[in-house]
Specification:
By secondary structure, this protein is α/β, with parallel strands linked by helices. About 20% of the residues lie in helices and about 25% in strands. It has a domain of about 280 residues: Aldolase class I (TIM Barrel), CATH 3.20.20.70. Strands 8-7-6-5-4-3-2-9 form an 8-stranded parallel beta sheet. Strands 10-11-12-17-14-15 form a 6-stranded antiparallel beta sheet. Strands 1-22-25 form a 3-stranded mixed beta sheet, with no helix packed on it. The N terminus is likely disordered. It binds 2-acetamido-2-deoxy-beta-D-glucopyranose (8 copies). One 2-acetamido-2-deoxy-beta-D-glucopyranose binds next to loops. InterPro entries: Aldolase_TIM (IPR013785), GH (IPR017853), Glyco_hydro_27 (IPR002241), Glyco_hydro_b (IPR013780), Melibiase_C (IPR041233), REJ_dom (IPR014010).
């Protein structure tokens, strides 16, 4: 029997420093909600499609629960500026012009969003061949043009940021932040309030700097296409270390919603939507609303789940515990003093699941199931329910009794009595912390002298770690690492560690 808490590092670029500055443009005090065409129409859009989509959004009644922004994405832009340098649109695709389209959107009672790019050209879906206008070097003129067209929102993408031939660069050789601050400053010099959505794909830790730049920042590569559950998992793993950076006016953007699109099951779409809502991502519908299914409307329209997103406190949920290959537990505070607990079933089968209240710090609580609205009364210690394959359990907990915090003994990974082998080596993180890196691929770290108590059995173990090697593509363990932990030479237990932070698991020594 033993207890330990160990710092352990795999690579050493962390992003734990909390941003202090915020943009404070008074906008997006709650995460923006609306519609964007990309996940359904890619960049292949024209005016009649936009007008129909705006009408469909209104007809769906979803604006009445908060989806008020109608945003353009790529595809409508021109390739050449006017003689005086003004941004233009493709007159074949948008015959009556973007200002008229904006007026139409406004006439429906919606807000209007446009799209541009922080590089030489914008993104497209033809391998960079379209060469639609980007705003780099034209920020003042473009901010003036977009606001004169009635824009209320700007999504600002990151293609061709390095030079005129480098389409998509996930490792640009310079600091991207000035590209995004230039447009922030240009927008602030116009007289129109514009929600500013930084779309840097998470390549240079935008959570560290973007709270002072935009109202939201994309934390990851695109959610699709293709639409898949694996993309949802990749993005969930990537947000783990940065949930604390979000707050009113400055949000982690997990990308557009896939609710209503083919490929994910209804329970998977509910998990995706619950997570995006509770983490306080912008909620941008990106499906064809001309004939939405009842499931689509029920998911997007669930007021109890939307209320998590629009809660006055503006605090993101944070990662609590992963039961590897089993389920996740996340939770966070709400304005009325209650707590949201979110459980995600990683098993691709429906089954009974027991949610342990101690994983969110309570011994008892009054609970409401937020998908069904059912009052579950007082739950004590744990709650057992049936959960769908890849489905969510979302509970609002009030009248809570806190559970005693677990007491840990701290064991530094770099202590001299530990054994490193197979290339594992200590490295200095800063003047007071030394970690152990190069674990895995044959490298092992063995703790010795861990207090296991006198009677054996199970103990809670918690590991601090830094990984931070984010990925733009899906892998077996996208944005996570698998650790294999064995006690007293016993069988190895798999412990999945999302991007960076701390994981807890129960280890047995019998
Ligand atoms: C318009 O832009 C395209 C692509 O950037 C460029 O190849 C072309 O020379 C431009 N045409 C004019 C008339 O400037
Ligand atoms: C530039 O020209 C366009 C028409 O081509 C006009 O709408 C716009 O007002 C002009 N902008 C400036 C800054 O002169
Ligand atoms: C404008 O849109 C039309 C219709 O989609 C397309 O054929 C044409 O290539 C586009 N022009 C430019 C300059 O992108
Ligand atoms: C563009 O940037 C890429 C990536 O840094 C570089 O490999 C390439 O040589 C650059 N091309 C030009 C024309 O500067
Ligand atoms: C989940 O299981 C179903 C049915 O067996 C299968 O069709 C689907 O591909 C599985 N989903 C994933 C993401 O593996
Ligand atoms: C819940 O967690 C506590 C603390 O780790 C543990 O003592 C208890 O056995 C767990 N309950 C269930 C039902 O797993
Ligand atoms: C779970 O589903 C099974 C089979 O449908 C049912 O017998 C059981 O009562 C359900 N359990 C709960 C806690 O709802
Ligand atoms: C070193 O890193 C630790 C862990 O992130 C942190 O708590 C501590 O403040 C840092 N110390 C210095 C001197 O930067």
């Amino acid at each position: 029997m033993f207890t330990m808490r160990v710092p352990l590092s795999i690579i050493s670029t962390a992003c734990f420093i909390h941003a202090i500055l915020a943009l404070h443009n008074g906008l997006a005090v709650k995460p923006p909600m609306g519609w964007n065409p990309y996940n359904v129409f890619l960049c292949d859009t024209d005016e009649s499609q936009y007008r129909a989509a705006a009408k469909d959004l209104v007809a769906s009644a979803l604006p009445s629960v908060g989806y008020n922004y109608f945003n353009l994405d790529c595809g409508w832009q021109g390739t050449n500026r006017t003689a005086n340098g003004t941004f233009t649109w493709n007159t074949t695709r948008i015959p009556s012009g973007v200002p008229a389209l904006g007026s139409y959107v406004h006439s429906l009672g919606l807000k209007f969003g446009v799209y541009s790019d922080a590089g030489y050209y914008s993104c497209d879906f033809v391998n960079g061949a379209a060469h639609w206008l980007g705003s780099l070097g034209h920020e003042a003129a473009d901010a003036a043009a977009f606001t004169s067209w009635g824009a209320d929102y700007l999504k600002y993408d990151n293609c061709y940021s390095v030079n005129e031939t480098d389409f998509v660069d996930y490792n640009p050789p310079f600091n991207l932040e000035p590209h995004f601050t230039a447009m922030r400053d240009a927008l602030s010099r116009t007289s129109r309030p514009v929600v500013y959505s930084v779309c840097e794909w998470g390549v240079q830790d935008p959570a560290r700097w973007a709270p002072a730049v935009g109202n939201s920042w994309r934390i990851s590569n695109d959610i699709g296409p293709p639409n898949s559950w694996d993309n949802v998992l990749r993005i969930i793993n990537q947000v783990v270390p940065i949930t604390g950076f979000a707050g009113p006016g400055a949000w982690n953007d997990l990308d557009l919603l896939e609710v209503g699109n083919a490929e994910m099951t209804v329970p998977e779409q509910k998990s995706h939507f619950s997570f995006w809502a509770a983490i306080k991502s912008p909620l941008l519908i990106s499906t064809d609303l001309s004939r939405p299914s009842q499931d689509t409307l029920d998911i997007l329209g669930n007021k109890r789940i939307i209320a998590l997103n629009q809660d006055d406190l503006g605090k993101s949920i944070s990662f609590q515990r992963r039961y590897t290959n089993d389920y996740d537990v996340w939770s966070g505070p709400l304005a009325d003093g209650s707590t949201v607990a979110l459980v995600l079933n990683w098993k691709n089968q429906s089954r009974s699941l027991t949610f342990n209240l101690s994983d969110v710090g309570f011994t008892s609580a009054k609970a409401t199931d937020l998908w069904s609205g059912k009052d579950l009364g007082i739950i004590r210690n744990s709650y057992t329910t049936n959960i769908s394959a890849h489905g969510p359990l979302v509970l609002r907990l009030s009248h809570t009794t806190p559970s005693p915090a677990p007491r840990f003994t701290y064991y530094p990974a770099s202590a001299s009595k530990n054994t490193l082998s197979g290339g594992a080596s200590p490295r200095t993180a800063n003047s007071s912390v030394t970690v152990v890196g190069d674990i895995g691929n044959g490298g092992t770290l063995t703790f010795t002298g861990v207090d296991g108590g006198s009677s054996g059995g199970s103990k809670l173990v918690s590991i601090d770690y830094i990984n931070a090697d984010y990925t733009m593509r899906n892998t077996d363990c996208s944005n996570c690492r698998n650790a294999f932990v064995s006690v007293n030479g016993g069988p190895a237990q798999q412990v999945q560690m999302p991007l960076s932070g701390q994981v807890s698991f129960t280890a047995s020594s019998d």
